[in-house]
UniProtKB/TrEMBL annotation:
Entry-linked Pfam families: MCPsignal, PAS_9
Native source species: Malaciobacter mytili LMG 24559
Assigned keywords, A-Z: Chemotaxis, Transducer
Biased composition (Low complexity): 483-494
GO terms of biological process kind: chemotaxis; signal transduction
Database matches in CDD domains: PAS
Ranges for domain Methyl-accepting transducer: 226-455
Name of the protein in question: PAS sensor-containing MCP-domain signal transduction protein
Record GO terms (molecular function): transmembrane signaling receptor activity
Domain PAS positions: 23-53
Organism placement in taxonomy: Bacteria, Pseudomonadati, Campylobacterota, Epsilonproteobacteria, Campylobacterales
Assigned protein family: Belongs to the methyl-accepting chemotaxis (MCP) protein family.
Gene Ontology CC, one term: membrane
Length: 523
């Protein structure tokens, strides 16, 4: 076909091309000039059936009537080569794909005199490539369980096909034969529906997703169960914390009242201790006064004895005066007798004697009266002496009682001081307890806030679990954590029983004793 004017080497190259390519030559307008056996065998024609015909006999009529086909030949006529893959049709109408180059051949003046086409049958390769494209399109829809059955002698394309088939097999075994199942499952999971499970011939990823769904389902069941449990527990906790809060506030109030009462008691005991000290001082003063009274009573007894002595002396003196009056009266009587005997001369003396006798009589009467008075005074002095003796005995007994009272007051003073020390310690302890109770009340209030937050979190956990769909969702119950709800009631009763009536302190009253015995009994 190309042996004109060629060297042996060129003829060899051309023969090699003749053996390996389907070759056909055209006029610039597309009229067929010649075709080799490879071309004729590939398209099922004989040489006389193609020579003189136009190239369009190998093409689809729609294509040959298009502007693209007209341009195709115009470009070739203008010397522009066309290299591409082309679909052509055999004599029997079946399709054949060729990889061809339409090369314009020019004369010395540069005019295109013919067009030579070198082509190779790539129908098998094209089928494989189309099958690969179709399989890829199918894979894009998610179907990975497929096998490309077309084959070609083109080793590269065949290797590519085999590699893709192997990829499909690996993906099917590792993931799933239908990726739409994976997508559906993931969409379901994305919509928080974990009830969906992939079925059929499962790959590793599908199995993993099912297992993941099972794990998530178990987690959601556990979360909801924990949420319900936490909700119930938080309700109990909130109730108990409320009770604790109320009890703490009541205890704080009671302790505050107790502290105030103890402070008042402490003040009263302190005042009592001070009064006892004053009583001790007054008792000492009373002892001193009693001792002085006893001494004065003794002096009174001595004075009474001295008065008796003097009264005795006065009595003796009065007796002497009485005797003198008696003697005077006798003398005056004798003088009167003598005066009467003397007559007129003794009349004046008789008058004097009478006056002397009158004086003696009155002296005797006065002495008698004085004697009576002195005897009365002596009787009163003896009575005073007896009273003074009784006073001495009374003062002695009073001193003994006062000494016992001082001892008792001293003991009471020591006890009162110890009681004051103890009550001050109790007061300090109650004050500290009151502070701690106030802190407990604050902590209880904070615990109430924490319990409220916990309750809110529990409800959020339950609500969050309820927004998701999972197997056994409606059958999930709270866990039985053996919470003894009665304990809260018992604790409540304990709190109630621990409440005490606030202490009412009555201020001490001063007791005014009617007598000494009443004073000691009142004390």
């Amino acid at each position: 076909m190309f042996n004109f004017g060629k060297t042996e080497e060129e003829i060899g190259r051309l023969n090699a091309m003749e053996e390996n390519f389907a070759i056909i030559s055209f006029e610039p307008n597309g009229k067929i000039i010649h075709a080799n056996d490879n071309f004729l065998n590939a398209l099922g024609y004989k040489l006389n059936e193609v020579v003189g015909n136009h190239h369009r006999i190998f093409c689809d009529k729609t294509y040959t009537n298009s502007k693209a086909y007209t341009k195709f030949w115009n470009d070739l006529a203008n010397g522009i080569s066309q290299i591409d893959e082309f679909e052509r049709f055999k004599k029997d109408g079946t399709s054949i794909w060729i990889q061809a180059s339409y090369t314009p051949v020019k004369n010395k003046s540069g005019k295109v005199t013919r067009v030579i086409k070198f082509a190779q049958d790539i129908t098998d390769s094209k089928k494989v490539i189309d099958a690969v494209k179709n399989s890829i399109d199918l894979a894009k829809t998610g179907i990975m369980k497929q096998t490309i059955t077309e084959s070609t002698k083109n080793e590269g394309i065949e290797n590519l096909k085999n590699g893709i088939n192997e990829l499909y097999q690996i993906v099917s075994s590792k993931v799933d034969g239908d990726l739409n199942k994976i997508s559906t499952s993931l969409t379901s999971f994305q919509n928080l529906n974990f009830t969906h499970r992939i079925s059929g011939d499962l790959g590793e990823v599908s199995i993993g997703l099912n297992n993941l769904a099972d794990i998530i389902n178990e987690m959601l069941v556990e979360n909801k169960s924990n949420g319900l449990t936490l909700d119930e527990s938080s309700n109990i906790l909130l109730s108990n914390v409320d009770k604790l809060n109320i009890s703490s506030n009541e205890a704080a109030a009671s302790l505050e009242e107790t502290a105030a009462a103890l402070e008042e008691i402490t003040s009263n005991i302190r005042n009592t201790t001070s009064n006892i000290a004053k009583m001790s001082s007054l008792s000492n003063n009373v002892t001193t006064s009693a001792s002085q009274g006893e001494k004065l009573a003794s002096k009174t007894t001595v004075a009474m004895d001295e008065i008796n002595t003097q009264v005795s002396l006065i009595t003796e003196a009065i007796s002497i005066i009485d005797q003198i009056a008696f003697q005077t009266n006798i003398l005056s009587l004798n003088a009167a007798v003598e005066a009467a005997t003397a007559g007129e001369a003794g009349r004046g003396f008789a008058v004097v004697a009478q006056e002397v006798r009158n004086l003696a009589s009155r002296s005797a009467e006065a002495a008698k009266e004085i004697k009576n008075i002195v005897e009365t005074a002596k009787s009163k002095a003896d009575e005073g002496k007896e009273i003074a003796s009784h006073m001495i005995d009374g003062y002695k007994e009073l001193n003994q009682n006062i000494q016992q009272t001082i001892t008792l007051i001293s003991d009471i003073e020591m006890s009162s001081k110890e009681q004051l020390t103890g009550i001050e310690q109790i007061n300090d302890a109650v004050t500290q307890l009151d502070q701690q109770t106030q802190q407990n009340a604050q902590i209880a209030s904070q615990a109430h806030d924490v319990a409220q937050i916990t309750d809110n979190i529990a409800k959020l956990v339950v609500n969050d679990a309820n927004t998701k769909e999972f197997i056994g969702k409606n059958e999930v119950k709270a866990k039985n954590i053996n919470l003894n709800k009665s304990n809260s009631h018992n604790s409540n009763s304990i709190y109630q029983s621990s409440k005490k009536t606030p202490i009412k302190v009555e201020r001490s009253k001063t007791i005014t004793p009617k007598n000494n015995n009443d004073e000691w009994e009142s004390f």
